[in-house]
Design goal:
Layout (H helix, E strand, L loop, with lengths): L1 H9 L12 E3 L1 H7 L2 E5 L10 H10 L3 H6 L1 E4 L3 H13 L3 E5 L5 H9 L3 E4 L4 H15 L2 E2 L6 H17 L6 E5 L4 H13 L4 E7 L4 H8 L22 H10 L2 E5 L1 H15 L5 H16 L6 E5 L10 H11 L3 E9 L4 H9 L4 E7 L5 E9 L3 H13 L4 E3 L4 H5 L15 E9 L4 H8 L5 E8 L5 E9 L5 H11 L3 E3 L4 H6 L1
Parallel strand pairs: 2-10, 3-4, 3-6, 4-5, 7-8, 7-10, 8-9
Antiparallel strand pairs: 1-2, 11-13, 11-14, 12-13, 12-16, 15-17, 15-18, 16-17
């Protein structure tokens, strides 16, 4: 089997359609984690993914009669584009069955290449079942996305290129795993020529079929798979890939959604390229593995396997990247509901950059404030929580709370019977430490803040919404205070949305 795969990889026909992708240094992330990180840029392939290698190698080996009848594939997206491109190049029909959860960018790309798209099921496994039915019905040739020797050999050319491009020592190659085609091909090649190099598989905590299968000694079928990393959302790995992974892969590492978002940001900062979640999975795993094993000074290769990102997902990625890099901590703080408490809290925050500040008056005795702060490490997160508690603010760390990070941070608010004489204003503050403290310090102590919302949007100016309880007799003095601040502001007290919801 071993020699067969070496020969298959060395004689693969991938370069009719694929490029030899670059192996680039990721200088910023290397500096951050204290290891040399090299990115194998498979996201730069013609279909923005490595998948065209295996698809074309398989289809180029078909008999003319098979090509004439056409091919069928089931795919979460990138294999689909590879098959569609190969079919276009070889002049044959391609039917692609895709899960309904596939990002629209991938569906459009397949159609743009001439593929006939059928959307069905929630995962690859559901789509594959339907594709097998169509295969028999229409006498098409099935091009499997991972469990086929020709497909595996095509993907193995990635490993061949890495060794050719970097003859110097490599400590580990990190590879994302869905069904296992890429890691099987890479490991089958690398471990025979450079057995000293570790090949480490990376999966998400909610789509870890390969890790569970290797532990169980048999292929395990997951009931459900996480869909954030849709390119690796596979319920059951392949027979052939399972055998190869058991023989050649050294270790595995699991990562969560926040870690993937952080890795997407890392690659953007180093390359100005935006990866899809599955494409950043290997780097997320490399960072986690290095941290868990206290690696320093090692040379690690991460295969950036795809860049077919749904643009609408970028908002979520941006929100979660700092949490995944341990650069944002999220807290629920309780403060006394009395004048000056908000200022004391801001003084406790100090000069740290605030990413989010949410508050709505709701109780006569205490107030609950939702705060996000930029940090440099998880150790700083713990120190911050302890510091708030010592200053008399009961503190709940929400940094690992999925509901709080996904939903609650945008829902703090509501009507309040205690918000008497409330006026609502929008402000633009200069985005620098101390701006909020200056605002609060200039306020008359008789005016109470009853609502506050701030979220860092990455701009030069912070956009802040503030509810202030101003007695009618103080209106003139309050106007002078606003004008004296020097910050642009808008009175939103008559805004119909405010009247309706707050």
């Amino acid at each position: 089997m071993s020699t067969d795969y070496l020969k298959r990889i060395l004689t693969s026909k991938v370069y009719d359609v694929a490029i030899e992708s670059a192996l680039e240094s990721a200088s910023q992330v290397s500096s951050h984690i204290g290891n040399t990180v090299l990115l194998k840029r498979e996201d730069t392939q013609p279909v923005f993914s490595f998948k065209l290698r295996g698809a074309y190698n398989k289809m180029a080996s078909l008999a003319p009669a098979e090509l004439k009848r056409g091919v069928i594939a089931a795919s979460a997206g990138n294999h689909a584009q590879g098959v569609a491109l190969a079919a276009k190049r070889l002049g044959c029909r391609a039917v692609i069955v895709m899960p309904v959860t596939t990002p629209q960018v991938k569906v459009d790309a397949v159609r743009g290449l001439g593929g006939e798209v059928v959307l069905i099921g929630d995962s690859f496994s559901d789509s594959a079942e339907h594709a097998r039915e169509l295969e028999k019905k229409e006498k098409l040739t099935f091009v499997h996305p991972f469990d086929d020797p020709d497909v595996i050999a095509g993907q193995g050319t990635v490993g061949m290129e890495i060794l050719r491009q970097h003859p110097d020592p490599i400590d580990a190659i990190f590879v994302a795993i869905g069904g296992g085609g890429l890691i099987s091909g890479v490991a089958a090649y690398v471990k025979q020529l450079r057995p000293d190099i570790k090949v480490i598989g990376v999966q998400t905590v909610d789509s870890d079929a390969m890790v569970r299968s290797v532990k169980a000694g048999r292929r395990v079928t997951l009931n459900d798979v996480g869909l954030f990393s849709d390119g690796t959302a596979v319920k059951q790995v392949g027979l052939e890939t399972f055998k190869l992974v058991r023989e050649y892969v050294d270790d595995f590492v699991l990562v969560d959604t926040d870690a993937i978002c952080a890795a997407i940001k890392d690659v953007f900062q180093d390359t100005r390229s935006v990866l899809e979640p599955a494409g950043a999975l290997a780097l997320a795993g490399a960072k986690r593995y290095a941290a868990d094993n206290a690696w320093k000074g090692k040379t690690m290769v991460a295969i950036t396997s795809g860049a077919n990102m749904n643009f609408d997902r970028l908002r979520f990625v941006a929100d979660r990247a700092d949490v995944g890099q341990a650069r944002e901590a999220v807290f629920a703080l309780t403060i006394p509901e009395k004048r000056g408490s908000f200022l004391r809290l801001c003084e406790a925050v100090g000069n740290r950059s605030v990413t989010e500040f949410n508050y709505r008056i709701s109780d006569a005795e205490t107030a609950h404030v939702f705060v996000g702060l930029q940090i440099s490490s998880t150790a700083e997160q713990e120190r911050l929580a302890n510091s708030f508690r010592k200053k008399g603010f009961p503190t709940l760390d929400l940094s690992g709370n999925e509901m709080a990070k996904t939903h609650l941070r945008y829902m703090v608010g509501g009507r309040s019977e205690l918000a008497e004489h409330e006026m609502l204003f929008r402000f633009e503050f200069p985005e620098r430490p101390g701006a909020l403290t200056r605002f609060l310090g200039a306020m008359n102590p008789n005016w109470n803040i009853s609502l506050f919302h701030y979220r860092n949007q990455g701009d030069d100016y912070g956009r802040i919404l503030v509810g202030i309880q101003v007695p009618p007799a103080d209106k003139k003095v309050f106007k002078a205070f606003l004008d004296g601040l020097g910050y642009p502001y808008w009175n939103e007290s008559d805004n119909p949305a405010y009247r309706l919801f707050l």
